[in-house]
Amino acid sequence: MKVVILCGGSGSRLRGETEFRPKPMVEVGGRPLLWHIMKLYAHHGFEEFVLCLGYRGEQIRQYFLDYEAMTRDVTVTLGHVPRVTLHGDDVESWTVTLADTGVSAMTGARVKRVERYVDDATFMLTYGDGVADLDLGALLAFHRRHGRIGTVTGVRPASRFGELLTTGTEVIEFSEKPTTSQGGYINGGFFVFERAFFDYLTDDDGCVLEREPLERLAKDGQLAMYPHDGYWQCMDTPRDLQALTEAWERPAPPWKVWRDGR
Question: What is the pTM of this model?
Answer without folding.
Answer: 0.91
